Amino acid sequence: MALDVRLINRLASRLIRLALVLLCVAIVTFGLVMLSPIDPVDAYLGPQMAQVSPEQRALIAERWGFDASPAVQFGHWLNQLLSGELGWSHIYNQPVSEVISQRFQRSFILLSSAWLMSLLVGFALGVIAGAKEGSLLDRLISGYAYVTASTPAFWLGMLAVLLFSVYLGWAPTCCAGPVGILNQDVSMLTRLHHLVLPMMTLALLGIATITLHTRARMIALMNSDIALHAFAQGASRSDIAWRHGLRHASLPALTLAFASLGELFGGSILIEQVFAYPGLGQATVEAGLRSDVPLLLGIALFTALFVSVGNLIADSLYPLIDPRMAQEQP
Amino acid sequence: MRRTILLGLVATCVAFSSPAFSKEQLVLAIGGEPEQGFDPLLGWGQYGSPLFQSTLLTRGRNLTPEAGLATTWTLSEDRLTWILTLRDDARFGDGTPLTAKDVAYTFNAAKQAGGRADLSALNKARAIDNTTVELSLNAPRITFIDQLMTLGIVPDANRENGYREGYGRQPLGSGPYRLVEWQEGEQLIVERNPYFHGPLPAFERLVFVFTGEQATLSAAHAGQLDLAAVPPALATNLPSDMQRIVMESVDNRGILFPMQPATGEQSASGAPIGNDVTADSAIRRAVNLALDRNTLVDVALNGFGRPAFGPADGLPWSLDDEAFTAPDSDRANALLDAAGWERRADGLRYKNDQPARFRLTYPASDTTRQLLAQVSAEMVRPLGIEMQPTGRHWDEIQREALHQDAIVFGFGSHSPQEVYYLFHSQHAGFGFYNSGYYSNATVDSHLEAAQAAVGAEEANRYWQAAQWDGNTGYGFRGDASWAWMVNLAHVYAANTCLDLGELGIAPHGHGWPITANLLEWRWTCD
Amino acid sequence: MSMIQPRIAAAGYISLLLIMLVVLLSSSWWAGHNASQMQFDARLMPPSTSHWLGTDALGRELWSRTLAGLRLSFWVGLSAALLGTLIALTLATLATLSTTLDALVSLLIDTLLSVPHLILLLLLAFALGGGTQAVIIAVALTHWPSLARILRAELFSLRHAPYVAISQALGKSRRFILVHHLLPHLIPQCIVGALLLFPHAILHEAALTFLGVGLDPTQPAIGVLLADAMRYLTGGFWWLGVFPGLGLLLMVLSIDRLAVQLRRAL
């Protein structure tokens, strides 16, 4: 009974903090954008700015409140934000909310499959490497992990394109679907075909982090009292790895996976650029390069929301790890 | 039994094979997605052949006017009134007939729209009857016929399905194709217009994909494209199963210099005007003299082009003795020394403490222009001038760099009208044309005289005088307003089965010049 | 005996890495002029004995451009790492001064950590307008939060150390305790932190430059080299993409290993 109340309390305080953090993110991003040398009316108009008369510019400035003080502008923008109005993207000629939802759908497949893959493969490799510490296999796996962690993501993508697309021709070089075909006519298989290379490249980097972390946990476990206890009772090394290791190392791996959502987003920006995959990451770069302020703000907030939720989950999982391990000490 | 089956098979094959129509859909990656949509009143098709609409006249292979929507056309004695008779079988994509009212509306609305280059010469367009149109001008204008050849006709706003806001995204026209779907930034799908009055196009559907240079090449290598525009520098590594098509053109590239000093003035859209370094004619002349145009053709164009010394090399309205010896660093250095640009220890020239340094801006996605910018910067450096090649997106260029940076621009037209837009002070700061704010009263008067000329020959004399009349001009001997670099040929990779007919001469690249003879294209494989 | 052997191995490893670093950084002497020299008759040449790593579209030697790019990445990454460490130290110290400041700093840290690194970098680069200085500041501002968290935790735990209590009992001012007891204890943490930040800074700078919002594209930064290589990828000019990235990987890996070794030694 008391546990439930404590849990709810903790959850509530975490949610409040989440909301506070998001508000701060909004302030920071808005402030950054205000700093930029772009005239907000220009940013709003995009390429049409040359054709608009000075009177029309004044009208737009008034309507969007560009001529007010930054604090007032922020309030105005926040207001619109809370009612779901994110502004208009001049690059894509659509409301920002539409751009984000459309593009996020495409990115989501990429992100989720890469996330899942890095979790599963990273965990597996980490367990194997940890269980067989010092062996050739361990050295190969940890070597691979160290090297990948130092590799620029976009370079890896370029190598993948060079090898698998240009030379071997196994996978397409770009985009989410083949050119010239209507969006709805693209088959699931073709979509997957276009997804494979970007997804694997994106996963490759996430695998490294989880592998190293899981490996460290496994090694700690193998040297811990629990393992000693099990050895004394006649269990084999692989027995321990399987029965105890999986349980003890899986939660930390999951926690880490949730905490590294931010890195995943960052990686997806680069990967989408290399593979010309029309997802949210590519839209972010376009928004930055072409000064599409509303879109940039919208994407920043959206991803911050995601990452915050991920961090929240990770933070909530942490206490589950340690007390459990502490409890099982004989 | 077997013979019957065989005969049946053969019969089926014969029934289904018709060489010109055996391919339903053609996929093209030739760039040129219009920001404003497919709206002739906002500039779509200003280089000719707007796919969705028809024009009154068309430009023949030798650049002379031929019949289009209009079957006859006459210009009055005083050169102020055009009378055109239209054909009676032209229909819009929804089946409704195209009448003189639509033509009159189009011209009157285009004059107001302001998004398109200049119809200010037009006084009024009037439909005399269903098939006769009268266009009256304010003053004689010899290049007005270009409007007749490039302005696509839109339906009258007062009728059903007429012109309204958003037309550019759902263009209704009488051209050979009509729009099916447009995913902006990605692709455009068009299908044959069943009501088109001309010969039936060979392909039921066309898909235009708006991929960048790299994605286009990837898709070509993957066999997904039937026609792809290729930057000349990469034209030697085409996929093995595609043929290389080279279309000659009057397309050119050059460096536009801001002509005014930086006084803090801004254009209507807030972009700063002027550059203190390029405002000095010694600098502009020196840059012209430093460029080794043959090397530029080699390095940036892979040989697909030739040196350029003016905006219309080889065309009748350009002088043919405009070329000068370059590179000539002695002459360039002497010019700079005489103008007061002193070399200092860091190798750079200074005048009144102003370093000879300015940005050379180009659209970042264009490999050819990047190469041109980098090589020309390198060629100019030994003179003590530092041009900084800066790649930017067009949006950013418009917002900031348009009137204060030197820009690698490209132009090239079948008509001398472009010369007017580029160098007449009336067009200073208008769109991309005279963005350097070039202004020379004598040149203005030559240009106006050309427009008012009676015939092409007289006009050409004035066009040429604007370039150099013995005293002044926009060319190198006069104000050296530009540093023209190269004329380039357009290179495409095409499916070996695609026969593009006899290609003409292309103008500047935007707007699908290769589709000018679209109706002659054939598929030669079964 | 078993204490010394790994130490010798570590020392040997470190010296090897340092030698490589010195060679790289001095390369502006013995290879600098080559990086921008265009050879128009040797464009897009594959690697060979006369062109060690091949040439690019303007005939510039890839090996000297790569070295120049690595030097650039090194200095920019180092500046960003140092700046980031300084910011982290300052803010962590501030956090110990009062509970309100602590709450504010923690909120700031959480805020910055919830925006994905690259997006924050893009925002900052957008706000600051691009260029070398902007990149250094942007990378520093993106990386200080994680280090600040660690330093703050350290400071808080140190505050309860016995010698601090003794100092307080002796009547020493807070500032004295801070400067003489706490900060010196943090220095090894800072050094390690800076070293660990360094490779990330380099990678993020390269990413920003690759996307087009980082260093000046007239400089042969690795990001610029790789972004350019993208144009020529389908043409089969593989060396343009492989070598600069490989160089960056080797440099980042070496610095990372160096940091790990140093952490073990400290």
Automatic annotation (TrEMBL), chain A:
One GO CC term, this protein: plasma membrane
Location(s) in or outside the cell: Cell membrane
Protein name as catalogued: ABC transporter permease
Residues in ABC transmembrane type-1 domain copies: 104-314
PROSITE patterns in alphabetical order: ABC_TM1
Family statement drawn from the similarity comment of this UniProt entry: Belongs to the binding-protein-dependent transport system permease family. OppBC subfamily.
Source organism of this protein record: Halomonas hydrothermalis
Bilayer disposition of the protein: Multi-pass membrane protein
Main location: membrane
Ranges that cross the membrane: 15-35, 108-131, 143-170, 192-212, 253-275, 295-314
Isomerase found in the keyword field: no
Keyword annotations of the record: Cell membrane, Membrane, Transmembrane, Transmembrane helix, Transport
GO terms, biological process: transmembrane transport
TrEMBL record, chain B:
Keyword Signal in record: yes
Residue ranges of every copy of the Solute-binding protein family domain listed in the record: 65-425
Keywords on record: Signal, Transport
Single GO MF descriptor: peptide transmembrane transporter activity
Residue spans crossing the bilayer: none
Pfam family, one: SBP_bac_5
UniProt GO BP: peptide transport
Signal peptide: 1-22
Family: Belongs to the bacterial solute-binding protein 5 family.
Listed name of the protein: Solute-binding protein
Organism: Halomonas hydrothermalis
UniProtKB/TrEMBL annotation, chain C:
Protein topology in the membrane: Multi-pass membrane protein
Highest taxon listed in the record's lineage: Bacteria
Subcellular location(s) per record: Cell membrane
Residues that span the membrane, as ranges: 12-31, 72-95, 107-128, 182-202, 236-255
Main localisation: membrane
GO cellular component, one term: plasma membrane
PROSITE patterns: ABC_TM1
Entries under Pfam families matching the protein: BPD_transp_1 (PF00528)
Alphabetic keyword roster: Cell membrane, Membrane, Transmembrane, Transmembrane helix, Transport
Similarity comment text for this entry: Belongs to the binding-protein-dependent transport system permease family.
Protein name: Peptide ABC transporter permease
Organism: Halomonas hydrothermalis
High-level lineage: Bacteria, Pseudomonadati, Pseudomonadota, Gammaproteobacteria, Oceanospirillales
